[in-house]
Write a structure and sequence with these properties.
GO terms for molecular function: GTP binding; GTPase activity; metal ion binding; rRNA binding. 29% of the residues lie in helices and 22% in strands. It is α/β, with parallel strands linked by helices. A hairpin with a 4-residue loop joins strand 4 and strand 5.
Length: 291
């Protein structure tokens, strides 16, 4: 039974990549009965009627899936932020990182327009902070292709989504990696503004030896699926220290002898990261229904 990966879903058809070939498949009626919707990124078993057409028979268990964009089995999220224009925001970056970590997706931080900074700019300090925490940070320039090769290396063999604010340079990065795409600058970001209920098909496109979703990542940045207890596990520097807290299940807020709060006091954890943590916890608290 041949197996492959769905790289595009459009009008009831699923385009399954099997080696070098793409087979146009329909889903079996049994999926509807079981309420299973195959997603782009799913690994599937299919039956080929001929060299170009077939039927999907089963969908393998997913390691993760996203709602917007609707993609499954994502290995990596490339979080694209600009050093300036728009201004670099650690709050937004940490929000993205928590969402990514909660989905068990590897984050890769890519900071564009680094050449526009002056030497004493604080963005360089943030780069150092995030690297110290253990994140991979790639810096690129708006004028040259510095950093593009490093980014391309990280795409190899992985399914990636790109995410970030409008105007940070997502299209420019993808164009630099695959010039034949000729994506219009801002085209990817602008599609976010088409309204919540507008469907736009998602496609995984080959790039640098991997697959990249040609759609904006994470048009929704709320913490709907997260509980308060889950948030600290999305901060690697807290995970590293939580075993040293006096209380098991410490939320690192008011508890005594908390190793995380101590690390913040000792400047081992950047204070802005801890402030964002408290902010996200508060947001989840506010979401709880009140009786």
């Amino acid at each position: 039974m041949p197996a492959g990966k769905i790289i595009k879903a459009l009008s009831g058809f699923y385009y399954v990549l099997d080696g070098e070939e793409t087979i146009q498949c329909r889903g079996r009626g049994v999926f509807r009965k079981r309420n299973i919707t195959p997603l782009v990124g799913d690994y599937v078993e299919f039956e080929a009627e001929n060299a170009k057409e077939g039927y999907i028979l089963s969908v393998e268990e997913r390691k993760n899936d996203l709602v917007r964009p609707p993609v499954a089995n994502v290995d990596q999220a490339v979080l694209v932020f600009s050093a300036m224009e728009p201004t670099f925001s650690t709050t937004l970056l940490d929000r993205f990182l928590v969402l990514i970590e909660s989905k068990d997706i590897e984050p890769l931080i890519c900071i564009t327009k680094m050449d526009l900074l002056n030497e004493i700019d604080e963005v360089a300090k943030y780069v150092s902070d995030y690297r110290n925490i253990g994140y991979t940070v790639i810096e690129t320039s708006s004028e040259t292709l510095d950093g593009i090769e490093a980014l391309a290396d990280y795409l190899h063999g992985k399914t990636s989504v790109f995410a970030g604010q409008s105007g940070v340079g997502k299209s420019s990065l993808l164009n630099a990696i695959r010039p034949d795409l000729e994506l219009k600058t801002n085209e990817i970001s602008n599609s976010l503004g088409r309204g919540k209920h507008t469907t736009r098909h998602v496609e995984l496109i080959p790039a640098a030896g991997g697959l990249v979703a040609d759609t904006p990542g994470f048009s929704s940045l709320d913490f709907d699926g997260l509980e308060m207890e889950d948030v600290s596990s999305c901060f690697p520097e807290m995970v590293k220290r939580s075993n040293s807290c006096k209380f098991r299940g410490c939320l690192h807020i008011n508890e005594p002898k908390c190793a995380v709060k101590q690390a913040v006091e000792d400047s081992m954890i950047p204070s802005y990261r801890y402030e964002h943590y408290l902010q996200f916890i508060e947001e989840i608290k506010e979401r709880k229904p009140r009786y």
